[in-house]
Amino acid sequence: MDTLKALAKLARRAREEQTPVFGVAELVRLRIESEGRQPVTLIPFGLFGGLSAAAASIILFLAVQFWQYMNSPLRELVAPLPEITLW
């Protein structure tokens, strides 16, 4: 129980204490302005984009090639049978 009273007393003292007020915005602005801007290089993004485009074109080429060789189940229904003449 003494611990709870001590904690309550500490909390009351913390609530009564005045918080110091000061602004740091000007100091932060000056520090940001004093640092030089670093140039941004877009070379890694260009390399990644180029490699992605090359890979996508290879996959597209292979997909079109495989699409041509794929058999459709409906194609067999409309294809004329070699041993039966239709008319």
Descriptive tags:
87 residues; mainly alpha; 4 helices; 0% strand
What does it look like?
64% of the residues lie in helices and 0% in strands. With 87 residues, the chain is mainly alpha-helical. The chain is elongated. The mean pLDDT is 84.
Tell me the number of helical segments per DSSP (H or I, 4 or more residues long).
Answer: 4
Q: Helix content range of the residues, please? A: 55-70%
- Which of globular, elongated, flat, extended, rod-shaped describes the shape? elongated
Total strands: 0
The share of residues in extended strands comes to under 5%
Quote the average pLDDT.
84
- Please provide the ordered H/E string of secondary-structure elements: HHHH
Which structural class matches the secondary elements?
mainly alpha
Radius of gyration from the alpha-carbon trace, in angstroms:
38 Å
Contiguous uncertain segments of 5+ residues:
none
C-alpha termini separation: 105 Å
Sheet with most strands = none
Which SSEs are present, and which pair or pack?
Elements: H1 2-16, H2 25-34, H3 43-69, H4 75-78
Quick summary:
This protein is mainly alpha-helical. It contains four helices and no strands.
